[in-house]
Amino acid sequence: MNIGEWISKRAMIAPDKPFLTEKNKSYNNEHFNRRVNETARALENLGIEKGMRVALLMSNSSEFLEIFFACARTGMIMVPLNFRLAVPELLYILRDSAPEILIYSNEFASKVGEIKAAGIPTMRYYRLGEGNDPSDPDFADYVENFEISEPLKSPGADLSDPLFIMYTSGTTGDPKGAVLTHQNILFGAIHSLLGYGVDRSYKSLVVAPLFHIGALAASVTPIIYAGGSIMISSFYNASEILKTICREKINYMFAVPVMYQMIADTPEWHDADLSHVHFFISGGAPIPLPVIRKYQDEKGVGFVQGYALTETGRLTSLDLEDSVRKAGSVGKEVFHVNLRIVDDQGRDIHTADPGEILVQGPNVFSRYWNNETATKAAFRDGWFCTGDMGRRDEEGFVYIVGRKVEMIISSGENIYPVEVERALQTLPGVKEAAVVGIPDPKRGEVVGAFIIPNREVQMSEADIINALSGKIANFKVPRRVFLVDEFPRNQSGKVLKRILKKRVEGK
Fold first, then answer.
1. For residue 100, which of 79, 82, 123, 69 has the smallest C-alpha distance?
2. Do 220 and 64 contact (CB within 8 A), yes or no?
3. Beta-bridge partners for 303
4. What's the Cα-to-Cα distance from 462 to each of 422, 429, 438, 459, rounded to whole Å?
5. What CA–CA distance (Å, rounded) separates 153 from 171?
6. CA proximity to 180, closest of 403, 172, 189
7. How far from the centroid of its chain's Cα atoms is residue 363's Cα?
8. What is the C-alpha separation between 220 and 98, in angstroms, rounded?
9. Cis (ω within 30 of 0) for the bond into 151?
10. How far apart are CA 218 and CA 18, in angstroms?
């Protein structure tokens, strides 16, 4: 059974059970199954077949999931696009994945206009909602013309087939498309059922953006696999999200730490009743201990935490009972995952010393799209090399101590310094740039940039930040810029970023 067939199975077993709620619309299992069937037939009618790509530039919505499960059922491959990316970044992904169509929410029409102007001749465009460009058909109107019954024309997909391609930046700064299979997502759901006891009583509030692995693999698919229900929203206002949690009796939610901090800072927090919450899941960055304590002490709500990658989904879990005692740990590996910590020679480390984390399991991605070199480099004797440095304590709990690739994680977004450095070095006032992560109480980390200025072109710190608008995504733009005369370097000339980080942490 592929992931798309979960929907028809749910419709057969419990047709009247609630499936999804979004604003003023609500679907039970049978109704949502019909919408997925209509969408699948519509995509087939466009000539899209198994293995072809369907790109989505969409905010959280029922339609996003209808397309996702329609692609899953037919063997088409979805390419979710991060709508926070700048247009040049989106163009790279679209040219690399070569989708047949791009379906977009109308709120991103201006970005789509720029994408069109850049020219991807084989791609067709469909919008969702009223738009300014009548040349792009409304996908929802198009879908309504098709049958709701099964079976479909497509041969469908097997568990080993690609389900979606999710792009993550590589160590060189060029995005890499991680190919996640039906099996990968199935075992992610199995781990939630085994580790957390997720069952049909769970009601998940989906607020993390669906273009992220965290939303699809933590907020949505485990709940659907278990027979629970989901409510779709976007994190537009912390007060409204808290009101929704209370009003709708939400008992499960995945979000990044800054979202939980914002909720706890709302005026409604004091009187909010969260007694119906089973637990919350935090991911994307370490959650501060004061936030954990605030939820536990004031609302009796615990956090499940873990360690996950785009290429793997969740690898470890720190359970509720250990969330304070082992604060700072990412827990232990989940049931079907093998995890090793090795030295530079690939030998297992059996002490508390740090080493690189290698993993193996049915949730590990199959390959990088169109990038055999990167795929080969990522695997060693059947083990995926995460590039992260970790250690175990005497009880077997894993701690992440650093990242080989110097990645910065800000509010759940992955940022590689070289991406920002490249953008900075296109500016006339920048002679050389070095980027590091700066600790931030809300976002986990933010980008800090050290600049050796070009003395012939005067640019202030504010000028440099403003000049990056449109060149890179907003979350990658430095929050602080430091103008310096030189960088600390080793004998080979490499910039010693650990010294730069110490400088900024001492300010």
1. 123
2. no
3. 280
4. 18, 12, 18, 8
5. 41
6. 189
7. 15
8. 26
9. yes
10. 19
Amino acid symbol at 410: S
Ramachandran category for residue 480: left, alpha or beta (phi over 0 → left; psi -120 to 50 → alpha): beta
pTM for the full predicted model: 0.84
Closest by CA to 67, choosing from 50, 42, 85, 45, is 42
Residue entry with tokens 């930046």: 169
What is the tens place of the pLDDT at every residue in 210-260? 999 989 999 999 999 999 999 999 888 999 999 999 999 999 999 988 899
Instruction: Please give the Cα distance from 491 to 66 (Å, whole number).
Output: 56
Evaluate whether 467 touches 457 at the Cβ level (below 8 Å): no
Pairwise CA distance, residues 236 & 19, whole Å: 23
Our separate counts of H helices and E strands in the chain read 16, 26
Share of the chain above pLDDT 90, in %: 67
Say if residues 155 and 50 touch (Cβ distance below 8 Å): yes
- State residue 411 phi and psi, 5-degree precision: 50, 40
Averaged pLDDT score across all residues of the chain: 90
What average pLDDT does this structure show over 365-376? 96
* Rg of the chain on CA atoms, in Å: 23
DSSP characters for 261-314?
A: HHHHTSTTTTT---TT--EEEE-SSPPPHHHHHHHHHHH---EEEEEEETTTEE
- What is the sign, positive or negative, of the torsion defined by CA atoms of 466, 212, 342, 172? negative
Q: What is the per-residue DSSP string for 203-232? A: EEEE-S-TTSHHIIIIIIHHHHHHT-EEEE
Asked if residues 408 and 417 have their Cβ atoms less than 8 Å apart, the reply is: yes
In this structure, what token pair is assigned to residue 272? 């909010």
Asked if residue 216 lies in contact with residue 232, where contact means CB atoms within 8 angstroms, the answer is: no
Distances (CA, A) of 115 to 52, 125, 133, 408: 20, 11, 14, 27
Q: Rounded to 5 degrees, what are φ and ψ at 92?
A: -60, -45
Amino acid found at 386 = T
Neighbouring CB atoms inside 10 A of 321's CB total: 9
Residue 475 CB-half CA count within 13 A? 16
Convert 79-124 into a string of H (helix), E (strand) and C (coil): EECCCCCCHHHHHHHHHHHCCCEEEEEHHHHHHHHHHHHHCCCCCE
CA distance 434 to 450: 5
